[in-house]
Each structure stands twice: as structure tokens, then as C-alpha cells.
Amino acid sequence: MEPVRMVDCHVHVFDPARFPYAPDAYYAPAGQELGTPARLAAVLDWHGVDHAVLVGPNSGYGEDNRCLLDALDAGDGRYRGMAVVRNDIPRAELAALKAAGVLGVTLNAALLGVDHYADAGPLLSHLEALDMIADVQVIDDQLVALSPLLDRSGVRVHIDHCGRPDPTAGIDAPGFRELLRRGRAGRAVVKLSGCVKVSRESYPHADLSPYIEALLSEFGPDHCVWASDWPFLRMPERIDYGPLLALLARQVPDSADRRRILWDTPCREFGFPTGTATA
């Protein structure tokens, strides 16, 4: 049987020995949370993952993308990137990032708040003009307030970590309804990831099953991707890479749908080659 090809669509790299953290960093990962490019490559190789999307972290580096760019360069095509940038970044700087393998920027409203992006209209217009991605992380009902800004820009939108819903609020909560609306309209890609961030239950996070089912139904496997969120910062319980892949197999039992989520859709979205394995 042909092995399953895989792309991990949300990981981070931290290499403070070579790229010191910003003095005012929101959080400074240390110890088992460190994820150097060498460690990342070893984890991906061990689990048979061909490619990964390196998401610039607010923790450690903030708007300093040097570590991210170094890993992209050393990866020789294995990776794509999402950068953290200021809202007033010029289009020429975004174009230079794209040339280096950065295909989008993060909008982390879950951490910084929706108001932080009130003046981000020009940024989103630049992203749309360059065919880059707005990689959006929200929590609870923040997507309701953020959606008009996203819709006006026409930018490509990826939603992190299942939209980070509150499992006690139900799938009819305004923020999750808005996420499903975007799925029905084909106006976003959602990452099936980060269950441990919001679940009130331990692995396998059964309280999120209705949310995963709703996302799969409204987005379909052609607008869903998978991600580990390695190296697992500030986790409420132990989490490992292998069990996360096993969880996806449980959430998406159809092997053809899993292939689309793990390979076909991310290759399309991030421009990874679909031929010979990289790893």
C-alpha cells in the first residue's frame, strides 16, 4: 500500500541560541518547548511528514522573523512560512517575504485582540494583491467582529485551530456559526488542530467531536488541513505528535478524505510539489 503523504500546516521554530528572543516577548519558550529547525526536521522525518508550514510565533520573536527566514532557507523547499508583521508593513516588504517562502501573515486576535487589527485594511489589501494568506487565530466569538474586515479585502483566509470554540457554548455560538458560514461559502480553509487548547476533556477531547464533524461537513476535505502545533507551548496536559495523527484518523475515518486533508489540500494551498517525497 502506498504510504500516506503528509503536510503539517502549523508548527513553530525556536532557536534562542542563534536567534535570541525579543526583550519584550509575550512568552519565552524554554526546555522541552524549544523547537530548533534540526529538532523539527527529525520529528517530521520520524513520522513520515514531507512538508510543514512554519508559523511565526508571537512567543519569543514577535515581529522578528529572522529565525523563521533562516529555517525556510535551510529547508530547501521543504517548508513554507507565515510571518508576524506590523500592520503598516509596505507591500514591497511583503513581496520580499513572499520571495523567501513566506506565503502569508498571522492575525492573532486571540492574543492581541480584534481592535489591534482595526487599521489592518491596507495590510489585507496588500496580501490580497500578492495572493498571500491571512492566517487568523481567534477565540470564542471574535470572528464575528473580524469577518467584515476580512470580507472587504477579499484576502485568502486560513483559520487556526478549529476557530478555538468554547465547547461549553455549543455549535450555535455566534463565532462558530460565523466560521461555518465561511466554510459553506468556500471563503476559508480551517486547520483541524489545537483541540487541547480549548477542550475541557483530556485526549481524545470528545467534547469537540460535534465541532469537528460540523467543520468537516461545512468546509469539506478540500478546505480542511491538519496541523500539530508542534512544539506544543504552554499545554495544559502532555501532548505528543503520534497521538495527534491517531486522533485525526479517528476524527476522519475515511482514508480518501484524510489524504485530501493531509496532502492534496495543503499542497494546493501552499504550493508544495506533489511528486517525489522530500523527507
Descriptive account of the structure:
The chain is an alpha/beta fold and 279 residues long. It has a single domain, classed as TIM Barrel (Alpha-Beta Barrel), CATH 3.20.20.140. It is built from 11 helices and 8 strands. It has an 8-stranded parallel beta sheet with strand order 1-2-3-4-5-6-7-8. α3 links the parallel β3 and β4. α5 packs across α6, α6 runs parallel beside α7 and α7 runs parallel beside α9. The longest helix has 16 residues. The model has no long low-confidence stretch (mean pLDDT 95).
CATH homologous superfamily label: Metal-dependent hydrolases
- What is the ordering of alpha helices and beta strands? EHEHEHEHHEHEHEHHEHH
Strand % is 5-15%
Described by strand count, sense and barrel closure, the largest sheet is:
8 strands, parallel
CATH A-level architecture? Alpha-Beta Barrel
User: How are the strands of the biggest sheet laid out side by side?
Assistant: 1-2-3-4-5-6-7-8
Helix content: 25-40%
The separation of the N and C termini measures 18 Å
CATH class bucket: Alpha Beta
Number of spatially distinct domains: 1
Shape category? globular
**Derived structural class:** alpha/beta
Secondary structure layout plus pairing:
Blueprint lengths: L6 E5 L25 H10 L4 E5 L10 H10 L3 E5 L7 H9 L2 E7 H4 L8 H9 L3 E5 L4 H12 L2 E4 L14 H11 L4 E4 L2 H4 L10 H11 L4 E3 L14 H11 L3 H16 L9
Parallel strand pairs: 1-2, 2-3, 3-4, 4-5, 5-6, 6-7, 7-8
Helix pairs in contact: 5-6, 6-7, 7-9
